[in-house]
Design goal:
Elements (H helix, E strand, L loop, with lengths): L4 E3 L2 E3 L1 H9 L5 E11 L6 E10 L2 E8 L5 E3 L3
Antiparallel strand pairs: 1-2, 3-4, 4-5, 5-6
This protein binds zinc ion.
């Protein structure tokens, strides 16, 4: 049972959150977690989700719950 979160006023699933961060649908996702950081743009709460954009890649993505800010752990 995926744990949904509210992002920018919308309830999102882990898959939808990963899609918002990646810009396109991803193959697989883990559960959404609280990231231990604040948004650098607005100071809002940041949430994290691990996902696989392809079979060979695993990425942790970050998204502010209040604004458009997003990031991932790619070098
Ligand atoms: Zn923000």
């Amino acid at each position: 049972m995926p744990e949904n979160r509210v992002v920018q006023g919308r309830m999102v699933t882990p898959g939808k959150l990963a899609e918002m961060i990646e810009g396109e649908p991803v193959m697989d996702t883990e559960a959404i977690e609280d990231a231990d950081r604040d948004c650098p743009d607005c100071g809002g709460d940041v949430i994290a989700v691990g996902y696989m954009p392809s079979v060979t890649e695993f990425v942790t993505g970050y998204k502010c719950q209040e604004c458009d800010w997003k990031d991932d752990d790619r070098e």
